UniProtKB/TrEMBL annotation:
Pfam annotation, one family: ABC_tran
Origin organism lineage: Bacteria, Pseudomonadati, Pseudomonadota, Alphaproteobacteria, Rhodospirillales
Keyword Membrane on entry: yes
The protein, known as: Heme ABC transporter ATP-binding protein CcmA
Domain of life: Bacteria
Length: 233
């Protein structure tokens, strides 16, 4: 099972009038979304349409040029630490430490989340099991295949649970069985009140998810302002 989460009450995560500038170019503008507990948002669109950029904005790694992100109606900028604590962001780059074993990698994340050794150990065992990694537990990160590395990275979601999962192309390098395992984990996360935002170019089964086409929010003009400046409106 997906370990219990830290959100006792139903929550909402929303973005209003979001715009993002990268390299002086408006990647998207006028973007709104609302996600409630149990909800899922799937970001679609061609290469360069801004899916990763939006996930990075949601994760607090990139400042929006315009607009507000809010958790339960409160701007997340008011308490960035709380937003970071409730968010799990998995980007393109696998954060697997090469000299640590798979179990040690997950143990590192689990103990950061919960220093209690017993609970952290159980969370690691569960994460290994759900992503079919138990037989690789003692293998160093540097000896993993691309798909095994990706599964180890995804297993962090269970080793150190949080309510909001932001996943950039999580199915990349996964075989069919691993995609099924991920779909099951996502469904359980949502069933226990979690939220998911993910980008994908592949089919993934997320019943009832809202689909967002990022190229619908493209803006044709080019701007010379530095990254992060407020857009004129
Ligand atoms: N570090 C960066 N500096 C400047 N511009 C960037 C940077 N990263 C991305 N961009 C630009 O931002 C735009 C959106 O890129 P982004 O990676 O968000 O798109 P994407 O939809 O996730 O693409 P893909 O499907 O290829 O992963 C692109 O035009 C890209 O060139």
């Amino acid at each position: 099972m997906v370990p219990s989460m830290t959100t006792p009450e139903p929550a909402t995560f929303s973005g209003t009038h979001l715009a993002c500038l990268r390299g002086g170019r408006v990647v998207f503008a006028g973007l709104d979304f609302t996600l409630a507990s149990g909800g899922a948002l799937v970001l679609l669109g061609p290469n360069g349409s801004g899916k990763s950029s939006l996930l990075r904005v949601m994760a607090g790694l990139l400042r929006p040029a315009h607009g507000v992100l809010a958790w339960n109606g409160q701007p997340v900028g008011d308490d960035p630490e709380a937003q970071a604590a409730r968010t799990h962001y998995l980007g393109h780059h696998d954060a697997v430490k090469p000299v640590l074993s798979v179990a040690e990698n997950l143990g590192f994340w689990a103990r950061l989340h919960d220093p209690h050794m017993g609970r952290a150990g159980r969370a690691v065992d569960n994460a290994l099991d759900r992503f079919g990694l138990s037989h690789l537990a003692a293998i160093p990160g540097k000896m993993l295949s691309a798909g095994q590395k990706r599964r180890t990275n995804l297993a962090r979601l269970l080793a150190a649970p949080s309510p909001l999962w932001l996943l950039d192309e999580p199915t990349t390098a996964l075989d069919k069985a691993s995609i099924k395992a991920l779909e099951a984990v996502l469904a359980e996360h949502r069933a226990t009140g979690g939220m998911v935002v993910l980008s994908t170019h592949a089919e993934i089964d997320l019943p009832g998810a809202t689909l967002m086409q990022l190229d619908d929010f493209a803006v044709a003009e080019r701007f010379d302002e530095p990254l992060g400046e407020e857009l004129a409106h």
